[in-house]
Amino acid sequence: MWPFPERSPGPDNGPGELLRRWFRSLARSARPGSDGVARIEPRQVYILPTRFGLMYAVMLIAMLLGSNNYGSNPGFLLTFLLAGLGMAALFQTWKNLLRLEIAIRPGEPVFKGNRAKFIAGITNTQAQPRAGIRLRAADTREATGETVDLPARATVEAIFERKAARRGWLPAGRAQVESTFPLGLFRAWAYIESDVSCLVYPGPAERGDGIQSGGAVRDAASRQVAGDDDFAGHRPRQEGDAAMHVDWKALARGRGWHVKQFDSPRGDSLWLDWSMVRARGTEEKIAALTRAVLDLDHANATWGMSLPGIDIPPASGEGHRHLCLRALALLDPSGEQLEQAA
Fold it and tell me: What angle do helix axes 51-70 and 73-95 make, rounded to 10 degrees?
């Protein structure tokens, strides 16, 4: 098992964070059950009039006063008709979020400074379609969201994002699902708590500050492996050898059955060594190693990496690149040991 944490460490316990936690504790949130699905219940739906809804209420009050002043029965009829329409819209907006089921999962890892994506599967458990359902990240102004329409008894995926300001695990945190359907007079919303996290890779150093300037690379001993490039001699023919490798000229000269052998030089395996990186601080070292990993992967090289507390053996490919970037993302800020699981 790699000593990597599966969740990010808890937030700071400063006064601002404690106050924010207190306010959040007052809000009723839908929390995922044992199946990872959060279900929105009636007491978890909040609703308030929108700006247009407030203007609509002011208009109704003015119509009521005017109708009363002039004794206009048609005015009263129109006023009460529009008021009933507003009350029906209030109920429909609240009902549009009721009994929704939401399951959130993290997206692909991203690099520091980019936006991490979280995918939410929104399930409509009712026989009536839902329209104008918007999901976004709560507690931040930088978050972006997506609006979807839900057919009856169907599941639709929506994506919301959070800015990845630091490497490591980025929690999805609290999501907010909201709707102003059908008339836009009211806005109903509910909070969804989630404990999933997206992995954030370190930001790479500028090009030229990785392998060359970082001083992170040391060579491993090269060796020869069987290949098809350079002739390396003969060996007696064995059952199963390909006919194309048989030395027919030697056979014609009466030297017996022999097979040609070929060697191809295998490129040196490289090691990215934490102790050899020439950088001032821990984050600068991590950025240099991240650049080195990306450069080596782009060159289809074979490399290993030595970090405090772990050695990753030489390999190549997408899986190896992810393993190295994950190790760098979860490296302790002190640079002395890897974070332990929370």
Answer: 160
Distance CA(213)–CA(207), nearest Å, equals 9
Contact of 189 with 175, CB cutoff 8 Å: no
Residue 249: the pLDDT is 73
**Average confidence (pLDDT) over 25-31:** 75
Domain hosting residue 183, numbered range = 22-47+96-201
Other C-beta atoms lying within 10 Å of the C-beta of residue 258: 19
229 and 294 inside one domain: no
Q: Which tokens belong to 42?
A: 């009636």
User: Within this chain, do residues 29 and 149 fall inside the same structural domain, yes or no?
Assistant: yes
Round to whole Å and give the CA distance between 159 and 7. Answer: 21
The dihedral of CA 306, 307, 311, 316: what is its sign?
negative
16: in domain: no
Q: What does the pLDDT read at residue 138?
A: 86
Read off the pLDDT band of 188 (50, 70, 90).
Answer: very high
One domain, residues 176 and 305: no
Number of domains observed in the structure of the chain: 3
Cα–Cα distance, 261 to 268 (Å, whole number): 22
- Contact predicate 58/212, CB 8 Å: no
Q: What is the predicted pLDDT for the residue at 253?
A: 73
Is the predicted pLDDT of residue 227 greater than 50, yes or no? no
Q: What is the CATH number of the domain that holds 193?
A: 2.60.40.10
pLDDT exceeds cutoff 70 at 268: no
Q: Are residues 321 and 246 in the same domain?
A: no
Residues 205, 328: Cα–Cα separation, whole Å: 13
The token duo for 274 is 């934490």
124-127-131 Cα angle (round to 5): 55
- Same domain? For 132 and 191 the reply is yes
Determine which helix (DSSP H) or strand (DSSP E) holds 108, and give its type and residue range.
none
Per-residue pLDDT band at 254 (split at 50, 70, 90)? confident
pTM attached to this predicted model: 0.71
